[in-house]
Structures are given as C-alpha cells and as structure tokens.
Specification:
By secondary structure, the protein is of the alpha+beta class. The chain has one domain: RutC-like (60s Ribosomal Protein L30, Chain: A, 2-Layer Sandwich). The protein contains two helices and six strands; from the N terminus they run E-E-E-H-E-H-E-E. Helix 2 links the parallel strand 4 and strand 5. Helix 1 packs across helix 2. The longest helix has 19 residues. It is globular, with a radius of gyration of 15 Å.
C-alpha cells in the first residue's frame, strides 16, 4: 500500500497533492515552489539563485520529514521559466546540494509558467535504504 506523506511544518501545498508518496521503498517528492514554509504568503525570493535555494531547502524539509536526505535522491526533474537566462545560475546553486561524485540523474525543462509565478520548480525520486543496503 502506498504511504501518502504530508510533512508537519513543510511547505504549504499550492495545489491538491501530498508532499511525497512512497511505495516499496520508492519515494516520489512533489515539485516544490520557492515559498517560505514559515511565511507561505510572503513574496517569493528575488532571482533564480535565491528561488533555487528556497526550492532545494523545501525539498530537504520534505526529505527530512520522512527520514531521508539528499544522499537518497536518485533523480530530479527541474523546471525553469527562463531557461536560457537562468540555466547557469540555477546550476551553481543546485550543484551545491550534492557531492560531485554523487549527483542524481537529472532532466531540466524550459516551461512557459509555474505556479505562484515561480522561476523554478524541482521534483525528485528517492529510494529508502533497505536492510543490507550500503549508503
């Protein structure tokens, strides 16, 4: 049976979804917006770098809320509304969340718009370790 996770103190959903859904050790994390969980109605951070950091921090909150961290993330999908302008600056911040030898698979897509007027959204797939797995 799947587990539907809503993280206490996590980012307020901008649509009807769970923060994460888990089945057989696989965890699908909903794409996060650059909103502040402590002040969800506050203006979004200015610029792609600040928004990327907020999105990644929000994903970290969800991961921590289910007992995982970035080392468990296997794949990310990244969405940018200004792909050509923001791709390099996005990458600068994004890569700081992973060791160079342990970066997840990734797809980055340019889109026309995102919820709440965001410049960036990132979702993830993670895998919960099982007995006998090495980190």
């Amino acid at each position: 049976m799947p587990l539907f996770h809503m993280i206490s103190g996590g980012p307020r959903p901008v649509a009807p979804f769970s923060h994460a859904v888990e089945a057989d050790g696989w965890v699908l994390l909903t794409g996060q917006m650059p909103t502040d969980p402590a002040a969800p109605d506050a203006p979004l951070p200015e610029g792609i770098q600040a928004q990327t950091a907020r999105v990644m921090d929000n994903l970290a909150v969800v991961l921590a809320g289910i007992g995982l961290d970035w080392s468990h993330v296997l794949q990310c999908r990244c969405f940018l509304t200004e792909f050509e302008r923001d791709f390099a600056a996005f990458n600068e911040v994004y890569q700081s969340y992973f060791p160079p030898d342990r970066r997840p698979a990734r797809t980055t897509i340019g889109v026309t718009a995102l919820a709440v007027g965001a410049l960036v959204e990132v979702d993830c797939i993670a895998r919960r370790p099982t007995a006998g797995d090495e980190k």
